Amino acid sequence: MQGNVLSKTWALVLGGSSGMGLATAKKLAQNGYNLFVVHRDRRGSMKTVDAHFDEIRAMGVKLEAYNMDALSNEGRQAILNSIADTLGDGKIRVLLHSIALGNLKLAAPKANPDLPFDDSNLLNEEDVAQTIYNMGTSLLFWVQDIHKRGMFAPDSRVFGLTSEGNQVAWLGYAAVSAAKCALESMARTIAKEFAPHGIRCNILQPGITDTPALRLIPGSESMKEHAIARNPLGRMTTPEDVAGVVYLLSRDEASFINGALIRVDGGESISG
């Protein structure tokens, strides 16, 4: 499938109203994909979100947006029921899991009182379990349900997003780090067990990227400064960098890339 994608081909972006999810939706739309975008945004931010969605529709593709809970079974089934009505005999070619909903509490009381962290409420079991599900294992259940309903194209691509925090211990990142490791594990399982069904699954590891999710991490400004200082290309990763790789890996030529973890960081992670 080269050039413009056929009109019956769709991409589904979970977490597609900002950051890498939105950038990917725009990139895929520029190349002919119709879009299903699932997001959770408050009413006050919808003017900005709707402007982005209108920009995508102006590219001549269809976009169906769901401001709903993608993380409950009930929400997932309701979204998929609506998607089924819209798809008709169309198919989902690309699925991107870009959900950034995790807990950023400390695991231990801080020893340095000058650190910009609140240690009055430490990470607990529920915080960790919910974060691992939200940002990690939920990918598998979306894949299972889409496949069960026969919605995937014969040659489909599934993507998740991890970070260098999968191995580096950042303050306040313990639960998200565990979730990223779980996501990578689920992706390997999907790559192995769903391959006979025509589904490839890969994980992208962007460098430090200035997104709304990053800005929630205490100390994110210093993280950005450090990323620029050590990046061989002298800049941070952008959402558009990530979107470009999702598009590249969705092309026919990338059909034999499966079960990989691919860094999209300009060499940041190898430059100690």
Tell me what you see in this structure.
This protein has helices at residues 19-30, 46-57, 73-87, 125-148, 174-193, 212-215, 220-230, 239-250, and strands spanning 9-14, 34-39, 63-67, 91-97, 152-161, 199-206, 261-264. With 272 residues, the protein is α/β, with parallel strands linked by helices. The protein has one domain (9-270): NAD(P)-binding Rossmann-like Domain (Rossmann fold, 3-Layer(aba) Sandwich), CATH 3.40.50.720. The chain has a seven-stranded parallel sheet, with helices on both faces. Strand 5, helix 5 and strand 6 form a beta-alpha-beta unit.
How would you concisely characterize the structure shown here?
40% of the residues lie in helices and 17% in strands. The chain has eight helices and seven strands, in the order βαβαβαβαβαβαααβ.
Give the secondary structure arrangement, pairings included.
Elements: E1 9-14, H1 19-30, E2 34-39, H2 46-57, E3 63-67, H3 73-87, E4 91-97, H4 125-148, E5 152-161, H5 174-193, E6 199-206, H6 212-215, H7 220-230, H8 239-250, E7 261-264
Parallel strand pairs: 1-2, 1-4, 2-3, 4-5, 5-6, 6-7
Helix pairs in contact: 1-2, 1-8, 4-5
